[in-house]
């Protein structure tokens, strides 16, 4: 589940796109069948994290600068941290052609992530032509000083719960949120992804950023438009794909929006 809270700081897009214990008596064959099904659901074939490996936009350029730790398990992810943050230094170049939004990238201190590497990965996601710059409405530039339009913060589950809880949101130590100007990323999700994307953790990070920044841009949740279709980035894919194929981008390479029916 990915949750969000709205505030007066939320910019509105120029145009609204709404179209947008298992029993021990199970026979071995049945167990094998379930294992195969689970495997199929879990593989996010290194294209789009929550992306469609067989859709119109295969390929994934994000993740090369990330902090991937092979074999990392849930027990190795710290539950709590210092509650203080390091800001990635330096300013980035402008990406996109629309209204410019400035953002910072912050990483909770002492959690083993490099702020510059996280910033590079976030920057690659926001610069991707399949991202929120895809329709020409938005442009982004990373800054390290002043008052940004929004802040991407990667933090431990307890710190995420505290920040998001301050906005009236229950993240339960598991999920991310958008609270006012803060795009809050749960360290557990950043490192482990979900069962659908455990084979493509860097790609899943694109879904986190695009989903929560999408909320900041004024987009609400969407549902699967139909079996076999790519899942909208604003769909709460952690709850299940509902017949859709994995997808982490709001647009195709040619600028077509990937959307579904709006939900509550």
From TrEMBL:
Top-level taxon: Bacteria
Q: Where is the composition biased (Polar residues)?
A: 1-13, 73-87
- Region described as Disordered: 1-24, 49-91
Keyword list, A-Z: Signal
Q: What is the annotated signal peptide range for this record?
A: 1-38
For bias kind Basic residues, which ranges apply? 14-24
Q: Which Pfam families match?
A: DUF3152
Record InterPro entries: DUF3152
Q: Which residues form a coiled coil?
A: none
Q: Where is the DUF3152 domain?
A: 76-241
Stated name of the protein: DUF3152 domain-containing protein
Organism whose genome encodes this protein = Wenjunlia tyrosinilytica
Name the lineage: Bacteria, Bacillati, Actinomycetota, Actinomycetes, Kitasatosporales
């Amino acid at each position: 589940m990915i949750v969000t809270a709205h505030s007066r700081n939320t910019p509105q897009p120029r145009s609204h796109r709404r179209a947008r214990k298992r029993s021990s008596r199970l026979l071995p064959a049945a167990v094998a069948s379930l294992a195969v099904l689970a495997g199929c659901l879990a593989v996010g074939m290194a294209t789009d994290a929550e992306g469609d490996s067989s859709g119109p936009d295969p390929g994934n350029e994000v993740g090369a600068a990330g902090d991937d730790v092979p074999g990392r398990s849930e027990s190795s992810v710290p539950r709590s941290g210092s509650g203080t943050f390091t800001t990635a230094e330096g300013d980035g170049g402008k990406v996109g052609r629309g209204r410019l939004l400035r953002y910072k990238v912050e990483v909770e201190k002492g959690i083993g992530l490099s702020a510059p590497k996280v910033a590079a990965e976030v920057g690659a996601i926001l610069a991707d032509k399949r991202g929120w710059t895809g329709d020409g409405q938005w442009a982004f530039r990373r800054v390290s000083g002043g008052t940004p339009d929004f802040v991407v913060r990667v933090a431990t589950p307890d710190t995420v719960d505290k920040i998001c809880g301050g906005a009236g949101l229950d993240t339960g130590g598991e999920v991310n949120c958008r609270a006012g100007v803060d795009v809050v990323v749960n360290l557990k999700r950043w490192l482990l992804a979900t069962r659908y994307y455990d084979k493509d953790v860097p790609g899943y990070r694109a879904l986190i950023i695009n989903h929560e920044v999408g909320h900041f841009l004024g987009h609400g949740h969407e549902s699967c438009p139909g079996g076999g279709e790519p899942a909208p980035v604003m769909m709460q894919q952690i709850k299940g794909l509902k017949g859709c194929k994995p997808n982490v981008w709001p647009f195709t390479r040619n600028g077509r929006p990937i959307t579904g029916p709006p939900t509550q």
